[in-house]
Amino acid sequence: MFIGNGNQGMKKNDLVLIIGILGIALIVMLGVQLYQQKVAGGGALVVVTVDGEERGRYSLDADISERIELGDGTFNVLEIADGYAQISEASCPDQICVKHNHIRYTGETIVCLPNKVVVSVEGGMDRGVDTSTY
Amino acid sequence: MKNRKIALLGLFIALAFILSYIENLLPLNIGIPGAKVGLANLAVMVAMYTIGEREAAALSLIRVILVGLTFGNISMMMYSLAGAVLSFFVMLMAKRLKIFSICGVSVLGGVFHNIGQIIVAILVLDTQSLLYYLPFLIAIGTISGVIIGIVANLIMARVSKTIASM
Fold first, then answer.
1. Neighboring chain A residues of B125 at a CB cutoff of 8 Å
2. Distance from CA of A5 to the nearest CA of B (A)
3. Number of Cβ pairs closer than 8 Å across A and B?
4. Which residues of B touch A58 (CB under 8 A)?
5. Cα B64 from Cα B79, distance rounded (Å)
6. Could you read off the pLDDT of B103-152 as tens digits, one per residue?
7. Cβ neighbours of B123 in A, within 8 Å
8. Residues in a beta bridge with A86
9. Domains in chain A: how many in total?
């Protein structure tokens, strides 16, 4: 419909461009996925979600300190050290997330309700204790 | 600048402002930060092809500042400014190359708007993990670019004669 419409319509070059860009996007997407799998292969991941949306994944093996900015000056600082993740600093009034114990086992979470931040561990070791006896 | 051009530019700025407002009313919530249709780019595209390149640059800049002050905050304005500047620069290059139609130029504009935004976001927030969103943003930029390009094409076919004869 828009092809071969003289100078006004979509040119063949446009189609080449669109297909090229989408191809690059696809390749980058696959590359990122492979890279993530490689990172995840090392062990447990710390998944950070903000208001239900995933914000980032970090390996539990690497020691990092990540400042999660939430806009309007609110923030949480995620710290991963020695295979444990914790919130070391936060702008929230109650500081429950900061006082929370550090986490390392699959399914463990730290929640910061005021900032709607959830930090949880995925794909790592199970806690050695049965849930019913815990 | 002739009076005619000034009046037209004012008209287009108002149009771009309203289009941004409409887009603000209908947020495209697909879980990817910064994903937008970029309706205002429609006004920038048509202005670039009908009024002039310099006028379109002014339009793009003024729109970002107006919209940032009205609906957003300073950090939002910074992201969209980076996106707007980069995308305008790329669109101008693409237009001057003369190998793409409006549609191709618009696609490049949409893609580079998102790239500019995410680069600033990575620099400001210091989180490389935002790069994971890049391919999705590129794909979304392409799709919205095609839509905006086709609509701009339809508008141009009707409007360019009127503007030229004014």
1. 67, 69
2. 11
3. 83
4. 129
5. 10
6. 999 999 999 998 898 888 888 877 666 777 788 888 989 999 999 999 99
7. none
8. A79
9. 2
CATH topology of domain B3-165: Arp2/3 complex 21 kDa subunit ARPC3 (1.10.1760)
Q: How are beta strands A75-81 and A109-112 bridged, if at all? A: unpaired
- Give the Cα separation of B116 and B110 in Å (integer): 10
From B57's Cα to the closest Cα of chain A, the distance in A is 22
Partner residue facing A18 (CB), from B107, B126, B157: B107
Residue-wise pLDDT tens digits, A4-63: 444 446 778 889 999 999 999 899 888 877 776 665 555 788 889 888 888 888 888 888
Name the minimum distance, in Å, from the CA of B157 to any CA of chain A: 8
| A21 to B100: CB separation less than 8 angstroms, yes or no | no
Left if phi > 0, otherwise alpha if psi is -120 to 50, otherwise beta: which for B14? Answer: alpha
For B28-76, write each residue's pLDDT tens digit.
Answer: 666 666 667 788 899 999 999 988 999 999 999 999 999 889 887 887 8
Statement to judge: residues A52 and A36 lie in one domain = no
Q: Kindly state whether residues A64 and A77 are assigned to the same domain.
A: yes
Q: What does chain B come to in residues?
A: 166
The one-character DSSP state at A50 is E
Which residues have CB under 8 Å from B142's CB, separation 6+?
A18, A21, A22, A25, B107, B110, B111
ipTM of model: 0.78
